[in-house]
Amino acid sequence: MLQKRLTLIYNNKVLILLLGFLSFFINYHYGFIGMMPMDNTVLFNGGYRVVKGYKPFTDYWLVTGPILDYLNSFFFKTFGISWKAFIFHSSIFNSIFALSSYFVLKKLGLSNLYSFIYSLFISVLFYPVVGTPFVDHHSTFFMILAFYCLIFSLSPKNYNYLILIPTLLLFSFLSKQTPAAYGIIVISIIVLIFILFEEKKRKEIFLKYTTGCLISLILFYFFFIITKISISDFFQQYILFASSIGEDRLLNYSFSILNEVIKFKFISYYIFSLIFIFIFLKIKKSLTMNDLYILIISLSLTVILIFHQMISFNQNFIFFLIPFLCGVLHSFCSKNFSKKYFLIISISICLFSVTKYHIRFNEERKFNELENIDISKAVDAKIINDKLKGLKWITIIKPDNPEKELQNILKVMNIFKKDSEKKMLITEYQIISPLLDIYDNSPNQWHHPSVSFPLRGNKFFETYKNFFITKIKKNKIVNIYETQENDDKIITRLVLAENCFSKKRLGEMLIKLKLNYNCKELK
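RE: above sequence
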């Protein structure tokens, strides 16, 4: 009887179903706890914009992932515009990522149970740290699937997976430029290594990968045809301006190997452990080409994500690499070491670090900057609209009085709704427009000076300024509303001269700017 029960527990289909269920609901649970208004609501509004027929780059300035707006619009059209539909989106992707990791780890030779455990750990540290759909996570998701395809193409050789890689990298790039761009370069080098060393399959590898590249180019072309996005606007905003941000960060980044090793100490442990295994197998002359490929793929993926994290302004989110690398290490240890001391230490480190980062990022919501805040003070966001029902609202802005913050948002919503004149809303609370079902006419997807749009002195500022003014004139905007508690942080004054508007404060949170079309810039 016990044997039958154990067989059932370890059954592949049972574990797959359980993994899919758990990885979905882990993210679904944490996606409703706390938020960072700008980061967590920007794509909520992006999905709403597309539902209403507006186009990225053409109707609003965008420097990150257009595909996220379209994916969110799909979930909104399917399930209705609500926080539940929003979190359903990211939870589905967390589940797919966990299941993909499960099959990859099985491919590496791990048992059903170990593959399940490591994949579950991966799902705990992947999407739940932020909870909501997020451009970095989606870009990473698609890029890692591309790396997984490289592993799937190994023993037994099945290079059909190479056909999928360029399309996955395209989706990754349309989610965010980086880490996708790094993945494109590194994976192309790895495929070239395949071509150089797999003499008998050289032609097949080349044809399959080339076919995949052609398919991705065709899909890229149809993306513009279907969405009717301006290619010139896409290139100007998503490629040229966005790349200038990356250049500035690279030039100003102070790099120290020791600091990065300490910062990512647990990931570094597995990097050095895999390098040790490579040296060990090389000395024993038992290193196979498949072993070499797996080590190259795993370490390349890790280095890419560390590099991306280094020059990113976001909180760390790559700790899901720990259980993945431990799984890879486990597969090598099982095949090459009779004594299990090294493996036991590695698994212990994995268990400790997964627990640590789960508490810090999931329970304490560090990614959303709520680590040192009493989350128990959160209140149900249905106070402002039933579409947010279940969302436990608490932010870094008013952590001691989240209900007052929601009441302020309600005041903003009422004022904006009652204004019958042509208006624009610039806010980090990008749930307001979808909740009111009123298009905000904002020129930007999100409002992070110098990051989401260029400032004076940047070579793309005049292009952005013309874009901003064109939107004002085209939509005949009379009033611009900004949710600012500090008059010095008004976004509009970064683009327009002071004589182009008069300002009036409407409560603690809101400023109303009445435009003056007689000023030089608006004539």
